[in-house]
Amino acid sequence: MSMSLKKRLWRIWSAFGGMRMERKLFVVFLLLITVPLSFIGYISYNNYSRSIEEKTIVYSTKMLENMMVRVDDYIEDMVRISSIPAYQDDIKQNLIRSNSYYEQRQLTSGDGSNPLPDDFDLLLSIQRGIEGNISFINTIKRGANSVYIFDQYGNGYYTTAGGGIRLNVKESYENWLERVKTSGGEAMLFSTQKYTSNLQSVRYAFTVVRKVIDKSLKPIGMIAVDANISVIEDQMSELDKVTNGKSVIIDELGNVIYDSDKERMATNIKDDPVVVQAAGAKGSFYFERDGLNRLYIYTTSPNTDWKVMTSIPVSELTKDAVVIRNVTWIATLITILVALLISTVLSFALTNPLRKMMRLMKSVQEGDFNVQFPVKYRDEVGQLGNQFNRMIVRIDHLIRDIYVMETKKKEAELHALQSQINPHFMYNTLESIRMAAELNDDQIAADMIAILGKLLRYSISDLHEEVTLADEAGHMRNYVEMLNYRYPNRFRLDSQIADGLGNYPIIKLVLQPIVENAIYHGMDDSKPSMQIKMSGERTPQAVLLRIKDDGLGMDEETLDRLNRSLAGTEEAGAKRKSGGIGLKNVNERIKLHYGNSYGLKVYSERGKGTEVVLHLPIEAGREAE
């Protein structure tokens, strides 16, 4: 088996495996029903067609043989009729008188003397004597419609009472005479000739010709017996009517004796492919002619060597078989449709419990555990349903336990984050106040303490509490202002929030830790100041908050490690740096509050600064699932 065929079969099997259960059952039922019925119908049709063909060949061959026997008998009768003059002294005496009369006339005209005058009385006596016998001969056998008797000088005697006399008698006589010269007195059979009768009609006839011999075996004339082709036509028409075919009779030289279509009468068809293929005494074969496949059946007369051949169109031959085939196919189709209807109902009935269980599973997948599969029977589906119900109950209990554990875990993590943030932030703030107090013992310290109060008041409440984006941005500005007391005019903050985002609800302390991280890890001592830009926008997918600085930035390896840590695909270092509350803590708080689809993404380039993008839900205030 070739690889391409294996791949094709594998694709078909894969497609079948991916079907729904009811479709699989439908395909199985379809194959189990259609394949056997189609096979049985095909075998029945072929056997019936073959049986009809064999019987038609046997029957047609038998009819052809019987028909040729009748034709042979008729020709034998014509041969006997041609021998009548040999036993009729009256005919022979008149022929002798005719020969003598014309011999004398030939002699007198040959020696130069005056020719004898016509003896009309003698000629009339001879003619009446011979034609009277011809009329008698015509009554002996039906079909011998024309009998011609000639003397040795080619003078013909015949009767026109029945009509059908050849106009070319003289020409026909010469043709017959040429062939019977060496016959020795035996009858010779001439194939069908076409001629025009004295009634000006075109006729066809085959002829038996024999010499007329006296008692001394000396030829004294010739007799020709014409048989009208209608003698054969009646029998051949009966054959064609039975077989719905066309027939032809040819002699041993290929001359057409009879043709059902009358198109090839009295012609020679020995080179016709059908005649060439019809070798042997009898047989049958198929041959296509004029775009139509035909069955040819032929047999040969042992007496005359005439071959009769009939051609039957295969469409006519198998007409009854086609009717039987069509009836069989219609019955098969109806049976298949009924069976498929039943199989469809059964397949849906068998797979309906499975589809119901699939719908229940989808409900469970969407979070609804208050489902129950109705168990009606103790079969395999019923047992599967019982196990499904037990599994749902068990999963529901486990989810409840996990939910309680996760809630406690989140609360613990939030408290831990808050405990980390508060000391860290207060430490840095108090350090700033301490340094400012040492340098300026007046209003600056008071301003710093006032800002410190705002910062502490904002940060000591619950970190899970939501505030507006405007409040969070204000807290960020207070933080930068406090740092500018410590580092005069070192940091510039530019905040741009799109219209409508000022009231966007957000959890506390997500912007200030990012700014703090930017200052302490990205500040470039070679620059007199550091620019920090904060912007907010709403996209069709999320709310994006961007905090960008022009600090030191980071290399590609550090950036990649940081983003993978934020995405949860790589653990952070074994130890956090001191005060490591920055980006990771803010990212974890966002994910805990809004879900794992949200969080931070960092973009940076060494020497060109860093940009942190916060991805928040488009639906304001959406809680984490």
UniProtKB/TrEMBL annotation:
For membrane topology, the record states:
Multi-pass membrane protein
Q: EC number(s)?
A: 2.7.13.3
Keywords from the UniProt entry: ATP-binding, Cell membrane, Kinase, Membrane, Nucleotide-binding, Phosphoprotein, Transferase, Transmembrane, Transmembrane helix, Two-component regulatory system
- Give start and end of each Histidine kinase domain: 507-620
Give this protein's Gene Ontology molecular function annotations: ATP binding; phosphorelay sensor kinase activity
Q: Transmembrane helix among the record's keywords? A: yes
Q: Name one Pfam family in it.
A: dCache_1
**Catalytic activity reported:** ATP + protein L-histidine = ADP + protein N-phospho-L-histidine
Cite the PROSITE patterns for this sequence: HAMP, HIS_KIN
Q: Where are the transmembrane segments?
A: 329-351
What GO cellular component is one of the record's annotations?
plasma membrane
Its top-level enzyme class, in one word, is transferase
Query: In what residue span(s) does the HAMP domain sit?
Result: 348-400
Annotated localization: Cell membrane
Please state what the protein is called: histidine kinase
- Which species is this UniProt entry from? Paenibacillus prosopidis
